[in-house]
Write a structure and sequence with these properties.
Blueprint: E1 6-10, E2 13-17, E3 25-29, H1 30-33, H2 41-52, E4 63-66, H3 68-75, H4 79-95, E5 98-104, E6 107-113, E7 116-122, E8 126-131, H5 136-139, E9 146-150, H6 152-155, H7 160-173, E10 183-188, H8 189-195, H9 205-223, E11 226-235, E12 238-248
Parallel strand pairs: 2-4
Antiparallel strand pairs: 1-2, 3-9, 4-8, 5-6, 7-8, 10-12, 11-12
Length: 251
Amino acid sequence: MARGKKNKMIEGQLSFDFCLDTTKYVCQANTLVGGRQALSLNSAKLIRAAIMQIQYDDKELHPYVISIPDLAKLLNISRSNIYRDIEKITDDILRNPVYIRQESSGKVRWIKIPWVKRCEYHSDIGVALKLNDELTPFLLNLKERYTQYELDNVLSMKSVYAIRIFELLQEKILYKKIPLEGLDVELSVDQIRECCDCVDKYKTFANFKARVIDIAVSEIQRVTSYTISFSYVKKSRAVVGIIFHINMSYH
């Protein structure tokens, strides 16, 4: 069982302890993976750890609590620094919702959904967190069009862009066995910018490549079993897409 014991009463609500087995899966609907997200690195990791708590047969999203020592270990932050950073992390989660893309009659609109119903720090308990019930369709009882990976794959990443691009790639390769010659995954530049909340950042492609793509690829290769190279899809002289060539590292 992935879930920790139910043993803490917080504001009249019984909460589960975080399970800290980071080999468990983070499982999200592809619609959520493809959403626009602006969380900082440690906030993104905490949200993925919260998603990892969900069990396949859950009927609702449950509240969880993680102690400060366990959170420091999970995020690889020193005990002294986690006390300094915890308010920043919880505030970031509360301030930065996920935007879900919806298309209708050729028009795109973004539905803004807060990540959590509650996210708060108790000095004597830790961080209490409950994912927003509005996210239920994207997290519970997923049978198709979902992406999963072990939490370990992203906890060591040092760039939130690496987490997001890894998720976008994982969405495409989840049900495919990567052949010996590798697998090509094409993502549009617009899609990467949207999902990484970079639509208005790094305006030139050279800057975008250096600050987002290069760092993300380097991090994914460092912490996962993938080796990645990439090439460009161009329209006239502009780069409109990136083809990621993915293979497995066997060393």
